[in-house]
Amino acid sequence: MHPVILAIESSCDETSASVIVHGKVLNNVIASQTVHHKYGGVVPELASRAHQQHILDVVNEAMTTSGIIPTSLTAIAFTKGPGLMGSLLVGVSFAKGMALALGVPLIEVNHMEAHVLAHFIDDPKPAFPFLCLTVSGGHTQLVKVNDYLDMEVIGQTHDDAVGEAFDKAAKIMGLPYPGGPLIDQYAKEGNPKVYSFPDTAMQGLNFSFSGIKTAFLYFLRDRLAEDPAFIEKNRNDICASLQLHLITMLMQKLKRAASETGIKQIAIAGGVAANSGLRSVICEAAEKYRWEVFIPDFQYCTDNAAMIAIAAHYKFLQGKFTTLDVAPMANLSIGL
Ligand code: KG4
Ligand code: ZN
Predict the structure, then answer these.
(1) Domain coordinates in residue numbering, the chain
(2) Average pLDDT value over all residues in the chain
(3) Distance of CA 98 from the midpoint of ligand 1 (Å)
(4) What is the pLDDT of residue 151?
(5) Is the CB of 167 within 6 Å of ligand 1?
(6) Which terminus of the chain has fewer Cβ atoms in its 10 Å neighbourhood, N or C?
(7) Which residues 6+ apart lie within 8 Å of 17 measured at CB?
(8) pLDDT at 13
(9) Is residue 309 over pLDDT 80?
């Protein structure tokens, strides 16, 4: 039986579906939820409702544009976790319904492993073992990738994710959610050397971003007390300085992991991998340290079903199917 898989992603605030045939991703349909913008963050109850509203249209579009008829599917894949429980439930239930109706097996996919495996959608592909810095709104992990389905987390955040630090800093500045892409945009016009922030790094390969969030809050509070228009006047420089600080925190650990493991194949994944500053700093490091760097296409950095599809493809090849009594897991770790 050949892998012809429909994959569904619904872990947070993107409803997405993708069809993959023999390892080739045919499409990547994504419905982003805008309902959260005015709340400054994802509201779980609204997210699950929006998934419910979008999932049928998103799956229909993925099936129609793929040219694959449902009876040709040989498996249905879904995100098991980590993510928001109510959001995950929508995707898991929809996938179960389709698998039952078509009489095909289910494949569960770990969202964080899928972010890493997004590197196998297009060329060039990294060779094993490689290091992947996975940076998103919910996670910050350094992963040693030994094989498609053999990964070890060698460092991770002890509190907030770096994407959360971007989003919270943006919120403090009065920018809408998600603020990461906006900080990136303003930073392009700013000078990153104007402001500096305290070094709140953890020891070893682990990260911590809660300290910088608080430091940034106090920094703005003090400046605003002197000049109420401080943010408007200096937005680009503030964004550029904060962005460089966050990138430097990530790069310190990535360099350390590369030197400790001796691995020179370096990848970045997850929503924050879309950050233009991080993309250019990592390319500079590649020249300096003779790394070979892998950066996914923008559409495969933020949450998407194509990465679930490629992960499901490798699970299919290894016969890793899931039974119908599977339940989503909000706190699923890599390797489980
Ligand atoms: O991977 P993702 O779509 O969802 C999670 O699994 O969390 O990542 C979303 C995160 C958000 O925090 C968002 O602000 C951040 O990725 N992000 C960015 C950029 N694009 C998305 N952060 C900085 N610069 C960007 N260009
Ligand atoms: Zn994600």
Answers:
(1) 4-117+300-317, 124-295
(2) 95
(3) 30
(4) 97
(5) yes
(6) N
(7) 6, 7, 8, 9, 29, 55, 58, 59, 61, 62, 63, 305
(8) 87
(9) yes
What is the structure's pLDDT at 19? 98
Ligand 1 atom at shortest distance from the alpha carbon of 170: 14
12 touches ligand 1 (CB under 6 Å): yes
List all residues 6 or more positions away from 253 whose beta carbon is below 8 Å from its beta carbon.
133, 142, 155, 201, 205, 206, 207
81-128, pLDDT tens digit by residue?
A: 999 999 999 999 999 999 999 999 999 999 999 999 999 999 999 999
Count of CB atoms situated within 10 Å of the CB of 83: 27
- Mutate which of 272, 275, 279, 304 for ligand 1? The one with the most ligand atoms within 8 Å of its CB, which is 272
Does the domain made of 124-295 have the CATH classification 3.40.1160.10? no
